[in-house]
Amino acid sequence: MKFTKIATPEQIDQKWILIDADGKTFGRMITEVATILRGKNKPCYTPNIDCGDFVVIINASKAKFNGLGKVANKEYFSHSGYFGSTKSVKMTELLEKNPEKLYKLATRGMLPKTKLGAKMLKKLKIYAGDTHPHTAQIAK
To answer: Would you say 19 and 35 are in contact if contact means Cβ atoms under 8 Å apart?
Structure first.
């Protein structure tokens, strides 16, 4: 009989991957980032263990968006739990003021909604410009 190998946290080799968002389509890049954070691109993928790599995204404000009027019309909602506390922010405002938050919101939707998903999201580093403090990492 053949058995499936289950990876343990000691066997996981986590690397740093640098992604330049300049000219890339936003949605396709975020799906690639979510796959890397989850570890599904590795042969040792185990669903209940954090097998993913660290991801650094630079030039976050220069990503390309497809779709007719998607950037102008899409809204992100937040709610504190109290009556009448729903707030909405347009995608254009998020892209101008805080592109890091836009990337985190989009990536969070593609990761598990558990403690493991929150741990994976902490491995995502986003920078609006082309400089970042993670100098030892190599580009992809």
So the answer is: no
Give the β-pairing of 87-90 and 124-126.
unpaired
The answer to whether the pTM exceeds 0.85 is yes
Decide if pLDDT at 4 tops 70: yes
Domain boundaries, the chain: 16-66+98-126
The answer to whether 55 touches 37, Cβ cutoff 8 Å, is yes
Sign, Cα dihedral of 131, 136, 139, 140: negative
**CATH code given to domain 16-66+98-126:** 3.90.1180.10
Handedness of CA 107, 109, 110, 116 (dihedral sign): positive
Tokens linked to 22: 């300049």
Tell me the residue length of the chain: 140
